[in-house]
Design a protein that fits this description.
The chain has one domain (6-52). Helix content is 0%, strand content 44%. It contains no helices and five strands. The termini are close together. The strands form two sheets. A three-stranded antiparallel sheet has the order 3-4-5, with no helix packed on it. It has a two-stranded antiparallel ribbon with strand order 1-2. The protein is mostly beta strands. It has strands spanning 6-10, 18-23, 35-37, 40-45, 48-52.
């Protein structure tokens, strides 16, 4: 998560890591609001409080 949107990092080691943009419209507003709950990331974004998973925002 960043001010550029929500990204997903995949891979098994540093040599295979890949960064993929999940949603460019969900901008993180409060970095201290990010939490993990039931395999989802919960955060305060420009879209409000959202749950983020592999499926998206």
């Amino acid at each position: 998560m960043s001010e550029a949107g929500v990204h997903r990092v995949t891979g098994t080691d540093p040599a295979s890591f890949q960064v993929e943009l999940l949603d460019s419209s969900a901008i993180l507003l409060a970095p201290q609001s990010v939490a993990v709950l039931n395999n989802q990331v919960i955060a305060l974004t420009s879209q409000g409080v959202v749950a983020i998973s592999d499926a998206g925002v």
